[in-house]
Amino acid sequence: xxxxxxxxxxxxxxxxxxxxxxxxxxxxxxxxxxxxxxxxxxxxxxxxxxxxxxxxxxxxxxxxxxxxxxxxxxxxxxxxxxxxxxxxxxxxxxxxxxxxxxxxxxxxxxxxxxxxxxxxxxxxxxxxxxxxxxxxxxxxxxxxxxxxxxxxxxxxxxxxxxxxxxxxxxxxxxxxxxxxxxxxxxxxxxxxxxxxxxxxxxxxxxxxxxxxxxxxxxxxxxxxxxxxxxxxxxxxxxxxxxxxxxxxxxxxxxxxxxxxxxxxxxxxxxxxxxxxxxxxxxxxxxxxxxxxxxxxxxxxxxxxxxxxxxxxxxxxxxxxxxxxxxxxxxxxxxxxxxxxxxxxxxxxxxxxxxxxxxxxxxxxxxxxxxxxxxxxxxxxxxxxxxxxxxxxxxxxxxxxxxxxxxxxxxxxxxxxxxxxxxxxxxxxxxxxxxxxxxxxxxxxxxxxxxxxxxxxxxxxxxxxxxxxxxxxxxxxxxxxxxxxxxxxxxxxxxxxxxxxxxxxxxxxxxxxxxxxxxxxxxxxxxxxxxxxxxxxxxxxxxxxxxxxxxxxxxxxxxx
Length: 559
Prior knowledge:
alpha/beta; eight-stranded parallel beta barrel; six-stranded antiparallel beta sheet
């Protein structure tokens, strides 16, 4: 597009243009005009509304002034009004009440990537920028999680933050212990992930401490932001705690009668993150079909229970650019959650080697592999395949687990290959290390393995699956081929968007700069799309927001 007539067909007013029903703009006493070349700049000034105008000389931008319908076109100060670009607050992209409830400025959240990849440093940085972050507590020991709680409560006592609570079918005692830890330290917000059903620990967390205030309102101290990709699970989160589980907790003395009764009037989670095609645990569902379905479910359940506070749906999976963020908000997401892209940032608990691997990732460079926490159930998660053989090796272990009843049944040739290429030690040595780990972490696993050789085989195979992500986080150089790096196609989209910009290099990627570029860029694109929706064609480069330095974005937001 090289000329004004290429951009907007009606490049000037003619007699044919002066028809009833047309809109005109007058400068009046306060109106100002600007050349079309300033359009890209003005789109970034989110608080300044303006109009696109046309007269005999071409297309201009109009600020202030007044707009009239069927005005006197002979007035020399009249311009044909083509499009109006209103203000666009970043907060207004999502649900303002979500921001108010969590005391944040923008409807943006960084998700909990396990093993501390969503690190204390990442959470602190995002919280200080007035957004919400979730610490990656899954896979860590109680002592490591407790240390993270202490550090964050000391570093950002007046800022909201979130801790992960993950479904742990193979470590039920650990899930209970984590809940005990959260309750003891007053961690009042958790991101519940990978749940296949509701459990006693997560219900206990939600219900504990419910009471009525002096005005008779129900006060729920502990809040849950749940993640789900299936309607049947989302329904459980949006419904009150199951009566069966409440009765069990009552029988255990874990909750009071008052807490059990009041729990019947609240949802398990007011906020539900729709997890589409993401890194880590995922069903690879497309957001464009999943999100509308969950929004309809939200409305259905809200009408059924008539909760005092509205249910909300956020979006995650595939979001790493302004365009994808805007798409989620346009479909009705109350907030968005990013994941893999944060692992590529310098505050993450991952290694520089992994950050470099992620910087070279394309959208097709991902695949599915067995999940360590639900290995026996056949649950898989999405990982990076470029530069790593983890997925292939992990899938090989699962094939052997399904085929044989014990380690001893594995053919000698296959066993030798496992010891040489995957474990790099004898399986007997692996079992000894596994035995020592679970003797401290969960002795019941060891006892079960003594009587169940297939369970013993699972624990041995899980040794590799579990350590593969820790090797990646620690940057163990001689194990790079075995790195388990949770990654979704969003990482490739982010790399394509940032190519040839300052965000293309790993040392320039910090979580706040990435977050603000996504959110600010979404607001800018929203204004550009508004012009298109009014039937005015704009140059293609206006729909491709280029990454900006953080101080440049902040300048626009403080004008």
